[in-house]
Structure formats: structure tokens, C-alpha cells
């Protein structure tokens, strides 16, 4: 008897999670139709009828895309881009580092499982609404369809060797949307730089922090050895309870810093705990992407 691949199992669970959301799906389809039929474009280049901007021509642009009148006024060639009134692009960065594999109890899913499930279910809902989705770790552009869902599921089944992940926005499309799913317990400067770089390209998004309940409450007492998931870092204490107040202060500072990063970039920030239900988390993420740009 063969074992079901992890990516197939993940997609099946994500389908199950997204299935009970017909009103949400209907709302997404209504928004997509409004964009196609009305004048509420997303200010994103594509096949719309309204002029948006000029951009320098790049290798691979067909000659018919060159605006020769605009190019004649300068030394370079320029492409006349139009507003895209069809589908929006959404980039997902999901932290695949070792720290996301933590779970304080067998009855609670690891952070990696919860983040992968939410990312997959969100991808399904977005594509049903006509939007293109990309998983940052795959290094491919946003796409739509069954094959893309399978690619995303396979990508979410991977795990990195490092303790903490760092967002990579290098391939994010300008004026797209982004979702970062992580515990954000690593170097916060990398998160700040990634959000700033994305914001500079007109990308709006969401920082969604996923924590195990033990990481929120710090229930440890007595002699305790704290070891990172990769084993690279270790700290032993005889009185773990003495660390609790300092730890909680640091965690509160970290959350406040993340909230400020999101606020300054026009993004949204929230925290989800893995012992809480997954459906409200999915609803929050989807609605956060519907918010004003």
C-alpha cells in the first residue's frame, strides 16, 4: 500500500478548509466581475483599455509594444502599459525554516502545518476568484489553475535547514499584493527591509504571525533546556520561570515592531495561534486582501 504524498494530503486538507466558504467565494467572484465590467481597475499593467504608465523597454518585449512617439523624445525605448482590469496577482511568502516545525503538544499542529494549510486554502480561494497566485520559494510568476495549485502544494511541503526564514521579494510584481506567513521570531531587520522594498514597488500586503500557544504564554518552570529546531542554538536555565517576564516583554516588543512595520507600509498585521480554529484565520487573511490599497 503506497503512502499518499505530503503535497496531495495538504491540498486535500486545504480543499476541505476552503469548501465551507460559498459566500466568500461568491463575493470574490462579484469583485472580479466588477473589475472586468466597471471602471475599478487595480492599477496594474495588463490587457485593459486605459493607459497606465510608460516603462523602459526590456529584453523580450515585442516591437509592436514599443511606443515610438514617446521613445522619440528620449534616447531609450519605452513600452506603453495599460491598466489591468482582470485578475490581480498575489505573492505568498511562507516561512519554511526549521523554527516553523515547532509544536508544544501533540494535539497542536506545528506552525509549518498551519501556515501551509492557510496558504494553500487561500490560494484555492483566490484562484476561484480569478486571481493569480505565486509561492515565493518557487521563484515562478503568479499563475492560475490546477497545475499551479499542485506546484504550490509541493513547494509548501519543503523545509529549509536554517533556524529562521527571511522574506524574499525580489521576484514580486509591482502593484501586486503579498502575504507573509511566519512566526517572525528571526532577525526582524530582514522583515523590515523586505516590506519596505515591496512597498516601494506599490505592493500592499499582510504580515500574519503564526505562534504556538507555548510561545505566547511561556509556561516553563524549573530546569529547562531551550534548543532551536535545527539544534544550532541551546540555552539551559535552572529557573525558567525567572525568564518569563523578560520573554513576554520581548515578545510584546516584537509584535509592536511588526505592527509598526505594517502600518508604515500600509500593510496589515495580525497574530494567529495554532491551537485556535483555522477557518477564522483564513477568513481574516482573505478579507485583509480585499481591503483598500
Automatic annotation (TrEMBL):
It holds the Pfam family DUF58. It comes from the Bacteria. It comes from Celeribacter neptunius. Residues 53-253 form the DUF58 domain. InterPro entries: DUF58 (IPR002881). This is DUF58 domain-containing protein.
Amino acid at each position: 500500500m503506497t503512502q499518499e504524498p505530503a503535497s496531495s494530503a495538504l491540498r486535500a486538507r486545504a480543499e476541505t478548509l476552503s469548501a465551507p466558504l460559498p459566500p466568500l467565494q461568491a463575493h470574490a467572484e462579484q469583485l472580479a466581475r466588477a473589475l472586468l465590467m466597471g471602471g475599478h481597475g487595480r492599477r496594474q499593467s495588463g490587457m485593459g483599455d486605459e493607459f497606465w504608465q510608460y516603462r523602459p523597454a526590456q529584453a523580450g518585449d515585442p516591437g509592436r509594444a514599443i511606443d515610438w512617439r514617446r521613445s522619440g523624445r528620449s534616447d531609450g525605448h519605452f513600452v506603453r502599459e495599460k491598466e489591468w482590469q482582470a485578475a490581480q496577482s498575489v505573492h505568498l511568502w511562507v516561512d519554511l525554516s526549521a523554527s516553523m516545525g515547532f509544536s508544544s503538544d501533540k494535539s497542536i499542529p506545528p506552525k509549518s502545518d498551519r501556515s501551509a494549510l492557510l496558504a494553500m486554502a487561500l490560494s484555492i480561494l483566490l484562484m476561484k476568484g480569478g486571481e493569480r497566485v505565486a509561492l515565493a520559494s518557487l521563484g515562478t510568476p503568479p499563475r492560475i489553475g490546477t497545475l499551479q495549485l499542485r506546484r504550490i502544494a509541493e513547494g509548501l511541503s519543503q523545509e529549509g535547514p536554517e533556524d529562521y526564514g527571511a522574506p524574499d521579494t525580489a521576484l514580486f510584481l509591482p502593484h501586486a499584493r503579498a502575504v507573509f506567513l511566519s512566526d517572525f521570531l528571526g532577525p526582524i531587520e530582514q522583515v523590515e527591509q523586505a516590506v519596505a522594498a515591496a512597498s516601494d514597488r506599490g505592493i500592499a500586503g499582510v504580515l500574519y504571525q503564526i505562534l504556538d500557544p507555548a510561545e505566547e504564554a511561556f509556561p516553563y518552570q524549573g530546569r529547562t533546556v531551550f534548543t532551536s529546531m535545527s539544534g544550532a542554538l541551546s540555552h539551559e536555565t535552572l529557573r525558567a520561570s525567572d525568564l518569563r517576564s523578560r520573554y513576554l516583554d520581548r515578545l510584546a516588543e516584537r509584535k509592536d515592531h511588526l505592527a509598526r512595520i505594517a502600518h508604515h507600509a500600509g500593510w496589515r498585521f495580525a497574530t494567529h495561534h495554532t491551537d485556535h480554529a483555522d477557518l477564522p484565520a483564513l477568513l481574516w487573511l482573505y478579507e485583509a486582501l480585499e481591503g483598500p490599497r
